[in-house]
Amino acid sequence: MTSSTPLFQLNGLSALVCGASQGIGRATAQLFAHQGARVVLLARDLEKLEATRKTLPSPEEHLCVSADLAKSSAIDSAVETILQQMGSVHILVNNAGGPAAGPLLDAQPAAFEAALNTHLLAQLQLCKAFVPGMKAAGFGRIINIISTSVRTPIANLGVSNTIRAAVAGFAKTLSNELAPHAITVNNVLPGYTQTDRLSALLQAAATRESTSVDMVRENWLKQVPARRFAKPEEVAAALAFLASREAGYITGVSLQVDGGRIGSI
Ligand code: NAD
After folding, report:
1. In sequence order, what are the beta bridge partners of 143?
2. 14-192+231-257 topology per CATH
3. Is the pLDDT of residue 2 over 70?
């Protein structure tokens, strides 16, 4: 790298971004491609993925793969396609939709099982598939999009709070195992971010509290020192930094992108 090389470029790197059809995952795929990475966009809805691919620079260089992360056989097929068409990936972004809202004891065991499959076991399967290629390349970045709930559990997100903590424990353990191979493992913790997920959570809270979405929004904004929700692109920027070559000595961390909402130092 010369002194004139712009920082945080992803040229020459390939990235698998899960949950790339909307929200934070979509913004991440777009930013990574703009930073020079070849991107595999993965989610269930191929049409939405293809629409996103068309927004990327040099769309023909990127690949869309449809898979349901809740199904291990679907992940196997996706891995096979990716390895055939792109080779291994240098950057793996683990991301999927958050579990449904609700108090812990209202949740059925099946909801925990589904969340465990989609978030933890999918991640395990993808790491097993792509870490050997990262080791061979002497470079790897694994980034999990989870939640600030790993710092302070969020009311009425019983299943999510439980599963996110498991993912955080998994990631810290893996970061120690992979650090000698120049592979970093980190978590990004979004605060309130303007996506379909946030709209669904606002609506669920308004229904639960018999009030309006506007009232809930106002109350939530009061908890955020920045007094606004994040744009998905602002969360993606944290991922692009952690994915970069320059972030090679940052591993095992959970980076809040929350406008200051978490109160601890
Ligand atoms: P989102 O619901 O808008 O997008 C989730 C993406 O994951 C979509 O592309 C969706 O199609 C994909 N996906 C969901 N289930 C899948 C499955 N089984 N297989 C494959 N793909 C699947 O979510 P978002 O707002 O972009 O958030 C991303 C992550 O960050 C989520 O886990 C969310 O819970 C978490 N988070 C979001 C916020 C927020 O305010 N938006 C705050 C904290 C944490």
Report:
1. 93, 186
2. Rossmann fold (3.40.50)
3. no
